[in-house]
């Protein structure tokens, strides 16, 4: 099956339109004579959003509609990504345990006559760090799959076209390297200043404790005040950088760009609309968190009931069965919440990207042309017959 974003889509949908010549009029939309659109006019809506500049309601309605129409593709892809990540982490953790099982056994059964030394502590510690780093990398890849899957689904959802999980996966697979690079580079750019500030804050906190111990309270308060000020600077800086590059995964998928090109393009699209992108993105994360909490609540209550069900004197198999059922409910609720909190905000951010291109690059007519059904071929005149 061919990718629907193939030759049938005008190039402006997948790639940035060329800049208009100097003095050219800005984007235009159908309007009735006079001051603006007449009361009966509405923007065409072939898919989940109207093909015009989007308001907050249009963006959220489009994200919820996409979830409703394409939940199999979105949740199926996310579930597969997180399941593979979990299995990989469990496998590596099992191998790590087998490698240091003897050291762990010596730590557990160490004698009071001789405390364990560095030789006993070091192998399990190294194994734990390796598992943690591997788990972080695998989770990053799983998140990149979800962040690539949302714009991959929206390519068809915006145009009102059906899609399949196979089509979405092919798009994700082709663009996963670029999306992963953009996510990794953005994370480094955002979190390196924060890590440096936190390190500075920790160091100054230690200096403050030492200074207090020496009796110099004035110097201690001064050092602590500088550390708090640095921390207050790091938070807004990290937030500004995150919003600046938040469109990068969508750009990498929609425009088939490399990681660095996607980040540069995201910066240009966000410029001048930072507060709007920030506010709507935060509302998307907040709405997803609230919905995930409400979704997890019945699972948590059911799990709690099963967890408290075993009575005193119950057989061991019954206790194990109730505990397993409680864990299944708890993990099921957590998984559904994770799927929602990972997919919905990315749909909101991807729709914000489409909105910025509609506003700045007049993308709406291109989308209208792409969504229009293909005209049937004109009938050919009958071939002349010989005499």
TrEMBL record:
Record-linked InterPro entries: DUF7847 (IPR057169)
DUF7847 domain residues:
100-329
| Keywords noted in UniProt | Membrane, Transmembrane, Transmembrane helix
Q: Where is the segment annotated Disordered?
A: 1-36
Q: Which domain of life is it from?
A: Bacteria
- Segments crossing the lipid bilayer: 74-101, 121-146, 179-212, 218-243, 274-299, 319-352
Q: Where is the composition biased (Pro residues)?
A: 16-30
Name the chain's protein: DUF7847 domain-containing protein
């Amino acid at each position: 099956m061919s990718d629907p974003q193939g030759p049938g889509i005008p190039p402006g949908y997948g790639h940035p339109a060329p800049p208009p010549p100097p003095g050219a009029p800005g984007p235009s939309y159908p309007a009735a004579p006079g001051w603006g659109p007449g009361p009966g006019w509405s923007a065409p809506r072939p898919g989940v959003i109207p093909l015009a500049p989007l308001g907050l309601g249009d963006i959220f309605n489009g994200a919820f509609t996409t979830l409703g129409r394409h939940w199999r593709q979105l949740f199926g892809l996310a579930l597969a990504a997180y399941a593979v990540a979990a299995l990989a982490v469990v496998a590596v953790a099992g191998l790590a345990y087998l490698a240091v099982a003897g050291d762990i056994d010596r730590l557990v059964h160490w004698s009071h006559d001789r405390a364990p030394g560095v030789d006993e502590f070091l192998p399990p510690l190294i194994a734990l760090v390796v598992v943690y780093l591997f788990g972080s990398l695998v989770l990053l890849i799983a998140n990149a799959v979800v962040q690539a899957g949302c714009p991959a689904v929206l390519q068809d959802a915006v145009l009102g076209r059906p899609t399949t999980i196979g089509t979405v996966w092919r798009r994700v697979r082709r663009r996963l390297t670029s999306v992963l690079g953009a996510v990794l580079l953005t994370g480094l750019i955002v979190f390196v200043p924060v890590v440096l500030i936190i390190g500075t804050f920790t160091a100054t906190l230690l200096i403050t404790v030492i200074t207090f111990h020496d009796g110099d309270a004035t110097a201690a308060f001064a050092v602590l005040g500088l550390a708090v000020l640095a921390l207050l600077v790091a938070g807004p800086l990290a937030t500004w950088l995150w919003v600046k590059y938040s469109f990068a995964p969508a750009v990498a998928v929609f425009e088939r760009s490399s990681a660095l090109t996607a980040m540069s393009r995201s910066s240009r699209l966000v410029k001048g609309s930072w507060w709007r992108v920030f506010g709507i993105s935060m509302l998307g994360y907040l709405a997803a968190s609230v919905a995930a909490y409400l979704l997890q609540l019945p699972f948590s209550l059911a799990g709690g009931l099963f967890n408290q069900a075993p009575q005193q004197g119950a057989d061991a198999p019954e206790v194990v069965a109730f505990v397993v059922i409680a864990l299944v409910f708890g993990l099921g609720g957590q998984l559904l919440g994770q799927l929602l909190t990972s997919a919905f905000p990315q749909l909101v951010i991807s729709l914000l990207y489409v909105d910025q291109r509609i506003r700045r690059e007049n993308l709406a007519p291109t989308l209208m042309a792409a969504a229009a059904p293909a005209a049937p071929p004109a009938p050919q005149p009958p071939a002349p017959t010989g005499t």
